[in-house]
């Protein structure tokens, strides 16, 4: 009888990395060689001897310590362990973002160890040798970025799974039978992750809320809000509290304020606005100068600190402007009534009042609480008509009243003079190095059911710039007034642009024949302004505007003032929109406190509030963007048979992104769907190249497309390629 041959043992040269990972995952527990062998499921003598050898080598290299004879612990602080954030890709891999690394650390799928997008994690980094891209493994999830997710539920006999449309969420969520709640098969639900057991493939969760059926309008809008953790309504106790606030104008309160009710005052807002944050007053002074008042709703008078209403406003931090609705920061009784500076009503305001000379130079300034009476409400279109025609009769086509009407001569005169001063302020700002981003805004005409009937573009004109310049003036001067006193304050800051992003942008715009001057900070802003002017009205405008905005740093709130690069201001704050932004409420409170002689407040407390406000602003912006994408997909769903002319706005190895010229809707043509030739991606030319024809499809090219698929849940458009527009 022959001896049975034993299978050869696969020799493992080095267990060091695996040992370090085991010890790092159990930082407070000592391991001997047997326990490590058992964890690695190795029980042969050769492997055990190698483990003993590697343990001694690691201890000699001071990467681990021998806590007691034969037992080892990872060192408390090791040069190979870092804390940072996970940035998931759409391919189930991730990058680890940490200030200790110039280059992001790649995390393969099998090294994620239950970490999700934006989680704060501890990572073991290896491959730190020169010439090798660093890779890492998640050792511990320190803090989850989010635990609530929106998805579609698939109910089985004894359990359910929820899958999300978010490409960065690489796993579905397991729901035990007793935690399905009221959900039915195929519902869109909000789920909360409760646990992710070590040996489970998916996290365990429970259904928090049923949002409705996929594709239904209200379901999708509520899903967008829920995805970013944004509320859709106020808790009943907050509404009740707000309803009980005394919103009447009291003589005793007027006596404490500067009375501006006899000064000519009016508002200019979008035609569909309901919350009027700001009003302007105008008076010609005997010395030939002009007194211009920037009057802002005195929200902090009604919103008392420490109340449930104030807590709710702070948590929200901002109003959210979705494509078909506003989710306000404050209940309607305040946002649309008590605090809204409506025409022919007395209102409490917080004001910045300036004396300007004919060259728009500030000669005097005053800040404080006031009471005003708004004489007139204009839409931007009406004010624009006055600026363009100098006429005081608003025609029916422009009027928001539904009929033609005559504007008082003094209001026409005030509008024209303020427009003149605003143009000087704007010109001065541009000369100082401010950057002009007048990006085209996509808006939808909706029917009564919220269905899109048409698309139009919102373009900033002189009337918009008039309001903008005086709001910027107030924001800047308030920040400067406190900033020069060196007291803790809330600034709106904007860092210099990211040079790598500018270089990447240069590579793209060079294909259209444009360039950016990188010599110094001033040249970059002048160069960007010249570029914006040059592309205005051209087919590539939206693409280049978008690239320019993406190359900029993100503006945020902070107590640490570094100035505002984009506006070219040394001091800048947000003072002018307290109905819709909580930082403005805090600015009002701090300004009044300092006007009353208060000492500087605790910086750390307010920095925490700044961070929260910036985070909530980011979530609101994402929700707003998603709602526009959703409506664009919905609009295109109703135009499946129509041919559209589009511009190639992105080129990748899997296809081209195309932005339709007439409505700015963007979708993808997949490379396999272009039948006229066999196309491959050429990275150097940033183009798709036809194998037979050598035809190029590159950025800025115009092509005709048709809708192939409009996915409302994923908010994605796929196009058929029809032909090039040669």
Automatic annotation (TrEMBL):
<dbReference type="InterPro" id="IPR001900">
    <property type="entry name" value="RNase_II/R"/>
</dbReference>
<dbReference type="GO" id="GO:0008859">
    <property type="term" value="F:exoribonuclease II activity"/>
</dbReference>
<protein>
    <recommendedName>
        <fullName>Ribonuclease R</fullName>
        <ecNumber>3.1.13.1</ecNumber>
    </recommendedName>
</protein>
<keyword id="KW-0694">RNA-binding</keyword>
<dbReference type="InterPro" id="IPR013223">
    <property type="entry name" value="RNase_B_OB_dom"/>
</dbReference>
<dbReference type="InterPro" id="IPR040476">
    <property type="entry name" value="CSD2"/>
</dbReference>
<keyword id="KW-0540">Nuclease</keyword>
<keyword id="KW-0963">Cytoplasm</keyword>
<dbReference type="InterPro" id="IPR004476">
    <property type="entry name" value="RNase_II/RNase_R"/>
</dbReference>
<dbReference type="InterPro" id="IPR022966">
    <property type="entry name" value="RNase_II/R_CS"/>
</dbReference>
<keyword id="KW-0269">Exonuclease</keyword>
<dbReference type="Pfam" id="PF00773">
    <property type="entry name" value="RNB"/>
</dbReference>
<dbReference type="InterPro" id="IPR011805">
    <property type="entry name" value="RNase_R"/>
</dbReference>
<keyword id="KW-0378">Hydrolase</keyword>
<dbReference type="Pfam" id="PF17876">
    <property type="entry name" value="CSD2"/>
</dbReference>
<dbReference type="InterPro" id="IPR003029">
    <property type="entry name" value="S1_domain"/>
</dbReference>
<dbReference type="InterPro" id="IPR011129">
    <property type="entry name" value="CSD"/>
</dbReference>
<dbReference type="InterPro" id="IPR050180">
    <property type="entry name" value="RNR_Ribonuclease"/>
</dbReference>
<comment type="function">
    <text>3'-5' exoribonuclease that releases 5'-nucleoside monophosphates and is involved in maturation of structured RNAs.</text>
</comment>
<comment type="similarity">
    <text>Belongs to the RNR ribonuclease family. RNase R subfamily.</text>
</comment>
<feature type="domain" description="S1 motif">
    <location>
        <begin position="641"/>
        <end position="722"/>
    </location>
</feature>
<dbReference type="Pfam" id="PF00575">
    <property type="entry name" value="S1"/>
</dbReference>
<dbReference type="Pfam" id="PF08206">
    <property type="entry name" value="OB_RNB"/>
</dbReference>
<dbReference type="InterPro" id="IPR012340">
    <property type="entry name" value="NA-bd_OB-fold"/>
</dbReference>
